[in-house]
Fold this protein.
Amino acid sequence: MLQIKNLSFSYGNTPYILNNLNFELSDGKYISILGENGSGKSTLIKLILGLLTPTKGTIQNTFQQTAYVSQRFESLNKQFPITVKEVLTCYQKARHLPGSNLIAESLALVNMQEYADALIGTLSGGQFQKIFIARAVMGNPDLLVLDEPSNGIDIKSQNEIYQLIRSLNREKHITVICVEHNLKAAIRNSHLLYHMSNGIGHMCNPKNYINEYLMENTGVEEYVSI
């Protein structure tokens, strides 16, 4: 379980970026975090991952293993001649993860077995994302955090990525926290939505999100057809 109580955060003497957030996330749930740029989504994720320390309040995380898939892998040189299998092998050794078939099992999980010997730089955006989801789940996490997993990839690949994430959640019972810009995907796939605006959060059921937040607070009517 993840429990956030009276959480506030600021950088130094600046105004609070997050202000008195409260929510609980139970095991096995899939939550999407929504909000405009600058609303505090990335800061909240960094706090959950332990990369930042709350200014006020607490975060209680009882999950045993947390994995993170960032929005971009800018630190990876896609021109470097390294294969998919070698990328995963480096990660396995760095994390001291046991299992002689772990890489093959992870690739099978994301349906990328045939790309084991492909150079990482030859993959499409969707394939690239699948590989790094495979890398994230190699350690058998019970909490998976993703930052805009469909950003910059085509519709077909987006559907495959969300099918994969749903499978990890529903079948592997991995709890999912997903920072989203893709409203349709968030509503279709999540158990819960957490909308952030000016550092304040609002939790709601995806089925009620349109009426509960968008229509009442922003007057956005075009989403009614989602």
Observations:
- Helices lie at 41-48, 84-95, 102-109, 125-136, 155-170, 183-189, 209-218.
- The chain has a mean pLDDT of 87.
